[in-house]
C-alpha cells in the first residue's frame, strides 16, 4: 500500500494574486481509520466507502494485512476488509509507531480474540500522547495488562470483555472510540462517561448500529453500549465516511485568506460552526448550503483570539492553518492550545518567513499582523512538522513572495489526499519533487 516517501513541495508564492475555483472534500480520515479498525467486528468482507486515499489509510491497511486480514482497494476511495482471516493479534510495532490511530484496533481485537499486544503508539509529534485512559478502561472491562520492557503492552481478557462503567478524566477521541468498539461485542452493558463528542464517533457508531450493535448516546458525553455477547456484526451493511471537516476547514481558512471566490463542495458546514463564525466575524464573506461553503477573502481581516477545544469547540487540528491566517490580520491575536502541548513547532518556520509571533509559553502564542511573508535565505528550509502544521506552511508559502520549498510532505500526505492537485486547480503553482 502507500509507501512513505521523503518528498517536497515547491511553491511559487501568489504575491497578491487570488485563488479561485471549486474544491471537493474527501471522506474524514479520522472516521475512516476507526471504521477500518471496526471492520474486525464483522462476520465477513465489509465495504467502506468515501475513504480518503491518504498515507494513514495505507498504514492502517498494512497493519490489518499483517494481522492476516484481507484488505482490497476496489477503487481509489473504496475498500473492502475481511477480518475472517485474522490469525495474529500482535500489532506490528514499526507500523504502529508511525500512526497513533492504530491503537484503536486494540478494542476490536481484544473483544474478538480475547488478547492483543501493541507498542506504545506513535503518530504526529504534537506532544506526549499517553494511553492511560485506554488501559484503565480495559482493566475495568475485565482485562489484565502486562507492559514489558520494550513498552509493548500485552492485554488479555481470558473470560471475555465485560460491561463496565468508565469515566474519562479528559475527553479523548481515541479512548472513546476504542472502548466503544471493545464494548460492542462484549458481555453486558458498558457506560462511558465524559466521552468525546466528535462527529466521526457518531458516524462510526451509526454504521455499527445498522449492522447489529447497540450503541446509544454517541455524540453526547455519555455513551451506553449493550454488548452482543460475541455475535459478530453483519458485513452486508456497508460504511460511508462523513466529509472531512478538518480538510474542509483548512480550505475554508485558505479561501478566507486569499481567494477571490472558493467553493468547498461535499462538506458539512454544520460540523464547522466555530471556524465559520470566527472567519465571518473577521471579515470573510461566507455562505453555506447543506453540503457546501462559498468563501471570499476578507479585505482587511480583523484579528481574534482562539482557544482550542473538544468538539464542537475550535478544533486543535485547525489551529496551525488559522495562525497562518492571523499573520495577515490587522492587529494582535492570542492562540491558546488546550489539547496538545507540542503543537507550535511550525511557528519557527512562520517566523523565518517574517511572521511576528511570540511564544508566551508552550501552550500560548501572540501573533501581530499583518506581516509580509518572504523567501528564506539560501540553505534555510521550511518543513511540515505534522499533518496540519504542514498545511499551515504550504498556505504561508502561497501567501508569500518568491519560491518556497516545503520538505517532509509525507506528513501532509498522511491526512490530505493529493493536496497539490487540489491547489493547482485553484490557480496555485505547486509541484511535488523528490528531496
Ligand atoms: N490523552 C490522555 N490519555 C489517554 C488518551 C488521551 O491523557 O489515554 C490526552 C491526549 O494526550 C490529549 C487529549 O487527551 O492531550 C486528547 O487526545 P485524544 O485522545 O482526543 O486524541 P487522539 O484520539 O489521539 C484524535 C485525532 C487527532 C486530533 C485529536 C483531538 C485521530 C486519528 N486523531 O487524536 O487528529 O488532533 O483527536 O481532536 O482521530 C490529525 O488528524 O491531524 C490529528 C492529530
Give the arrangement of secondary structure elements.
Blueprint: E1 7-12, E2 19-24, H1 29-38, E3 46-49, H2 55-67, E4 70-75, E5 78-82, H3 93-98, H4 106-113, E6 115-119, H5 132-140, E7 144-147, E8 152-156, E9 165-167, H6 173-184, E10 189-193, H7 199-210, E11 215-216, E12 222-226, E13 239-240, H8 245-258, E14 259-265, H9 273-282, E15 285-288, E16 292-296, E17 306-307, H10 319-326, E18 331-336, H11 347-352, E19 356-361, E20 364-369, E21 382-383, H12 387-399, E22 403-407, H13 410-413, H14 419-425, E23 429-434
Helix pairs in contact: 1-2, 1-7, 4-6, 8-12, 10-12
Bound molecules: uridine-diphosphate-2(N-acetylglucosaminyl) butyric acid.
Structure write-up:
The chain is α+β, with helices and mostly antiparallel strands and 435 residues long. Helix content is 30%, strand content 25%. It contains 14 helices and 23 strands. It has helices at 29-38, 55-67, 93-98, 106-113, 132-140, 173-184, 199-210, 245-258, 273-282, 319-326, 347-352, 387-399, 410-413, 419-425, and strands spanning 7-12, 19-24, 46-49, 70-75, 78-82, 115-119, 144-147, 152-156, 165-167, 189-193, 215-216, 222-226, 239-240, 259-265, 285-288, 292-296, 306-307, 331-336, 356-361, 364-369, 382-383, 403-407, 429-434. The strands form 6 sheets. It has a 4-stranded mixed sheet with strand order 21-22-1-23, with helices on one face. Strands 2-14-16-15 form a 4-stranded mixed sheet. Strands 4-5-3-13 form a 4-stranded mixed sheet. The model has no long low-confidence stretch (mean pLDDT 94). The structure holds uridine-diphosphate-2(N-acetylglucosaminyl) butyric acid (EPU).
